[in-house]
Amino acid sequence: MSEELGKQTMEKILQSLILTGKLLIVGVPQIGKTTACQHIVRSLMETKEFQEGIFQIKICDSANVWKWRFDKIPFVDMTKTHNIPEDERILLLDLGYTDTKLNTSLIENMVRGDYYRQKEIINKLEGRLSIRRIYVIEEIQNVFGTYSMSGDSGRFWLKVVSEGANYGQYIIGLGQRLADISTRICERTRYILIGATSGQNDLAKLKRMMPSSKATVIIDKIMGLKRGVFLFLDKENAENSMIIYFPKFVQTEKPYEYNVKQDGKIEARRVFV
Ligand SMILES: Nc1ncnc2c1ncn2[C@@H]1O[C@H](COP(=O)(O)OP(=O)(O)OP(=O)(O)O)[C@@H](O)[C@H]1O
Ligand SMILES: [Mg+2]
Questions:
Q1: Measured from the CB, is residue 4 less than 6 Å from ligand 1?
Q2: 237-247 as b/e, with b when 16 or more CB fall inside 10 Å?
Q3: Domain boundaries, the chain
Q4: pLDDT at position 132 over 80
Q5: Which ligand number lies closest to the CA of residue 31?
Q6: 228 lines ligand 1 (CB under 6 A)
Q7: Tens digits of residue pLDDT in 167-216
Q8: What per-residue confidence (pLDDT) applies to 127?
Q9: Ligand 1 centre from 168 Cα, in Å?
Q10: Which residue has the higher pLDDT, 39 or 6?
Q11: Crossing angle for the helix pair 100-124 and 151-167, to the nearest 10 degrees
Q12: Among 75, 97, 184, 228, which one is most buried in terms of CB atoms within 10 A?
């Protein structure tokens, strides 16, 4: 049940994301969640779909990690502008605010805007999907928290999580505690990359998410997992779960600041040619 991070393993992860529209990455602090996700994003960037502009990736980070540790991609300093260029193939949104509510609403506005854009494109193409928008969201508990799934905002996110794969919105959410992520989201998420967990609450949640005999085996596997090691859990088919090792991420070049004009407006400038 153990695998190095080979090409095939990575393909399975990417397929599961595209098939179901979401992937959660959870585990205790410093266990390697962001690192695992960086490997995933790098692999997404190597796909034909990305090269052709079909996959568009937006990374939402408020902890200032990607900006220093990922490869050469443009980042927008969201404390300088809230205008997000629409058609970049990949963009890092550096959410510098300590106010998590503000960060969350910036993310929600972006995903909502994209949602209407997706609908419009699909109508024009008579039901065919063209662009697929992939969002990497750090601190996903701020968006899908246990108390935040009500009201208009909650309904919108539930829709994205439930139906996103049908119209081209995909979410990779990262968080430290499964227990902090809304049960309604966990129930709808088939694949979870799960590293060592801390609290009993997380384990209890896992037990509620799947048949208890399976959960016991799964819990056994994740107890005491080392840094970089995750269980790729397929909730619906627990026997297919794998232990995967994600090595330390070695960046090639650093992200660079997207060209923002003095008046705070974004200047459209293609970076990948
Ligand atoms: N397989 C690995 N081998 C060695 N070092 C690793 C490995 N995976 C991650 N690291 C290092 O461990 C540290 C924590 O990794 P990372 O930031 O990915 O963890 P995290 O789970 O996202 O943490 P946080 O909960 O703070 O967001 C980083 O310095 C990273 O380079
Ligand atoms: Mg992290």
A1: no
A2: ebeebeebbbe
A3: 2-256
A4: yes
A5: 1
A6: yes
A7: 999 999 999 999 999 999 999 999 999 999 877 888 888 888 888 888 88
A8: 76
A9: 30
A10: 39
A11: 40
A12: 75
**Which of the four CATH numbers 3.30.365.10, 3.40.640.10, 3.40.50.300, 3.40.50.720 does domain 2-256 have?**
3.40.50.300
- Cα first-last separation, the chain: 41
The three state secondary structure string of 38-103 is HHHHHHHHCCHHHHCCCEEEEEEECCCCHHHHCCCCEEEECCCCCCCCCCCCEEEEECCCCCHHHH
CA angle, 170 as apex, 191 and 62 as ends, to 5°? 95
Residue 264 has pLDDT above 60, yes or no: no
Say yes or no: CB of residue 29 within 6 Å of ligand 1: yes
Nearest to 246 by CA among 77, 23, 34, 99: 34
Q: Ligand 2 centroid vs 127 CA: distance in angstroms? A: 37
pLDDT attached to residue 228: 97
Cβ–ligand 1 contact at 247 (below 6 Å): yes
All residues at 6 or more sequence positions from 229 whose CB lies less than 8 Å from its CB, including other chains: 32, 195, 243, 244, 245, 246
Calculate how far, in angstroms, residue 182's C-alpha sits from the geometric centre of ligand 2.
Answer: 19
Ligand 1, residues 227, 243, 249: which to mutate, most atoms within 8 A of Cβ? 227
Q: Which ligand is nearest to the CA of 68?
A: 1
Ligand nearest the Cα atom of residue 249: 1
